[in-house]
Amino acid sequence: MNKAFPPLPFGSERADLDKSPLEIRGLLSQPIWRELRTFLAVAKSPSFAQAAELLGTSAPTVSRDVKRLQDQMGSQLVISTFSGVTLTETGRKLAIQVAELDFQLFSLSNDLKDEMDAVTGRVAVSVTSGLAVAIVAPAVPRLNDNYPRLNLDIREQVSLVNFEKNQADLMISLSPISRADVDCVEIGTLHLIPIASRDYLKKSGVPQRQFISQHIYVQCNYYASEREIWDGWRGLVEAGHQTHNCENSLAYFALVRNGAGVGLLGNYVLADPELVPLDLGVHVALPIYLISVANRRQSRPVAAVYDWIVEIFRTNPSFSSRLTFPSGRHEQEESLRRMLETIAPPPPSQFG
């Protein structure tokens, strides 16, 4: 007759009672990883000097590491004499366990390296020239570090609304696409605001809402649409003096930065200290989408680039849902500032 067990007090639905070690913030070992590696080198060597040579450090450093480890463990692990070092019984047991852990870490490292090396091939990304130069291209070295055999093909957008015309694996777009065979994910917000260079402000004064007609505005073909979202900017241009018109976003940026007039630019360019935001009652917020053919992301290279693009936009404070201004404290802002200066260095000012 089978013995009857009483009802179990807890079931599998209580996941909070069976946590993963990663979920327990305070569950960390003592800070002895470095000392354990030093100890393993000592266990494999006849002296502190030879262990130091193996580690690329000095014998006194090895001796200090071993002493710290013994203090942390509360047990003697090594006996040092003039003829060399030997392990105590406790030290020998620990050395065997540390050697097994070291081999597991070595194997894991090789597996990760093999996984990175396996991500190889070309991935085409379609993006506007402004975002390509200011945001995507500067982040490519980080992609190289993780996937050295990946080849990124950055392409100018032939169409802002048609994915297929751009002939790319991925498209960074300001227009969403709703189709069953296409993935369209919002990755940030592009904030367009009136901006002028300090050189322009010295010559023409700071534009104010009641004196809009006294200032010069540079128009971009993209902003000439009859869509309601552009009404505010179009009103400024029509009320003032339009001097130049430009389609290329880099040339448009260069015109504004060199004092040709007030332009509508992304807030991220304010990482350049020569540019100043203007309070003229215009703020165009455009969601940024990352578009891909759904089954194309099954390719490991495409998936790697996809994740990388999502990260560079979602971690950049300029592309958050709320309008912010670059603080200069972020490394990516400083990098962008230096890059913008090389694109369009300001002319020598005639004003002090």
TrEMBL record:
Return one GO MF term.
DNA binding
One Pfam assignment: HTH_1
Extent of the signal sequence = none
Q: InterPro entries in the record, alphabetically?
A: LysR-type_TF_proteobact-type (IPR058163), LysR_HTH_N (IPR000847), LysR_subst-bd (IPR005119), WH-like_DNA-bd_sf (IPR036388), WH_DNA-bd_sf (IPR036390)
Record's keyword terms, sorted: DNA-binding, Transcription, Transcription regulation
Residue ranges of every copy of the HTH lysR-type domain listed in the record: 31-88
Q: Which PROSITE patterns match?
A: HTH_LYSR
Highest taxon listed in the record's lineage? Bacteria
Q: Which family does this protein fall into?
A: Belongs to the LysR transcriptional regulatory family.
State the protein's name.
Answer: DNA-binding transcriptional LysR family regulator
Q: Which organism is it from?
A: Rhizobium viscosum (Arthrobacter viscosus)
Q: What is the lineage of its organism?
A: Bacteria, Pseudomonadati, Pseudomonadota, Alphaproteobacteria, Hyphomicrobiales
